[in-house]
Amino acid sequence: MFSKACEYGIRAVIYIWSKSTHGVKLGVKDICKGIDAPEFFTAKILQSLAKQDLVSSTKGPNGGFYISKEQENMRLLALVEAIDGDKLFRGCGLGLKHCSEKHPCPIHDDYKNIRENLAKLLSEKTIKELAKEVTSGKATLTTIGV
Amino acid sequence: MFSKACEYGIRAVIYIWSKSTHGVKLGVKDICKGIDAPEFFTAKILQSLAKQDLVSSTKGPNGGFYISKEQENMRLLALVEAIDGDKLFRGCGLGLKHCSEKHPCPIHDDYKNIRENLAKLLSEKTIKELAKEVTSGKATLTTIGV
DNA sequence: GAAATTAAAGACTGTTTTATCCTTTATTTT
DNA sequence: AAAATAAAGGATAAAACAGTCTTTAATTTC
Fold first, then answer.
1. Residue A107 has pLDDT above 70, yes or no
2. Is residue A51 classed as helix, strand or coil in its secondary structure?
3. Which of A27, A133, B12, B48 has its C-alpha lying 20 to 30 A from A50's C-alpha?
4. Domain with A28 in it
5. What is the largest CA-CA distance in chain A?
6. Which chain A residues touch B99 with a CB distance below 8 Å?
7. Does B86 fall in a domain?
8. A88 to each of A1, A63, A82, A96, how far by Cα in Å?
9. What pLDDT, in 10s, does the model give residues B120-129?
């Protein structure tokens, strides 16, 4: 469903949220340790997100990634689109180039429905909410205990 | 969502269904022309499906691919699983190795819901139904008119 | 039986995704 | 100013995915 990059990206951003409530910055190493993701690969994703202004970053000692005031209400949908683009939400389920209401593929309506449910879910969820689930212990971002 | 191989495979099987109601066999070339898919690549997919007994085939003149009596009630789910495996239906939305009810990722429940809807859709749809939509002109498998 | 036809099988190429490493740049601390 | 730190950026490598081509095997037609 989501690409690896997107999975790491989502986990990373939720992690940053869950740890840096009061302006504390987190380094890539910390983050990747916390979410059990490959360091340099995840760094690239975060850099891309920073470029797109979905997260903030500063270099130098005590620098790292953090979430600014303006980024506080980020939705999951924005994150997914920033990393994976909109291919998950646009385009035909069977790969037809010109699938439309008028010339639908055989699963057009059902697929559309699934997709809209997914888009709805992603657009409703804020990172803040998700982070809260982690800090409260209800959810986790890494393999624990087993 | 689905891989290219899966898209071509689904289209191919629906096409076979829609054209070979009375035991007529269709060659790969015909099929690929009919669904606007790359020939050799799609051939591989059909061969794999034949090996897995989801479609039937015979070699030689007037040979080709067809659907046997036993394959008549094939569900879309079986097709997708045969080509893409179950990765779409199993595994965590955020890629966690040990995500479970007990140790869920932050989107566990919602993702599970989406996934179950998808699985339900795919397990309910028969290829026969989908083919009927094509033969009746309600749906299409290729780019038309534009 | 020989020729023609068609799927099956395997080798090969190209692209995208995933991942790692190394260098550069910006920032802070001393 | 120098040293240390951390993100940014570039280069490379491995794996998965997508697609093509060639040869082989089975079947039918003649």
1. yes
2. helix
3. A133
4. 4-83+126-135
5. 58
6. 140
7. yes
8. 8, 34, 12, 14
9. 999 999 999 9
Q: Tell me: the pLDDT tens digits for B62-84?
A: 999 999 999 989 999 999 999 99
Asked if pLDDT for residue A146 goes beyond 60, the answer is no
Model pLDDT, residue B142: 85
pLDDT tens-digit map of B36-71: 999 999 999 999 999 999 999 999 999 999 999 999
DSSP designation for B64: E
Cβ–Cβ < 8 Å for A35, A8: yes
- State how many domains chain B has: 1
Q: How distant, in Å, are the alpha carbons of A71, B5, B118 from that of A51?
A: 13, 34, 34
A60 contact to strand C (CB, 7 A limit): yes
Give the per-residue pLDDT at B145: 46
**Domain-located, residue B144:** no
CATH number at residue B112: 1.10.10.10
A89 touches A115 (CB < 8 A): yes
Query: Could you please report the per-residue DSSP string of A77-97?
Result: HHHHHHHHTTTTTSS-TT--T
Q: Nearest nucleotide, C1' to the C-alpha of A95?
A: D18
| Chain D nucleotides covered by protein, CB below 7 Å | 4-10, 17-22, 25-29
Instruction: Give B56's strand partners.
Output: B66
State how far residue A24 is from chain B, nearest Cα, in angstroms: 22
pLDDT value at A43 more than 70: yes
A25 falls within a domain: yes
Task: Assess if residue A115 is contained within a domain.
Answer: no
Q: Would you place residue A145 in the very low, low, confident or very high pLDDT band (cuts 50, 70, 90)? A: very low
Contacts of B52 (CB under 8 A, 6+ apart): B82
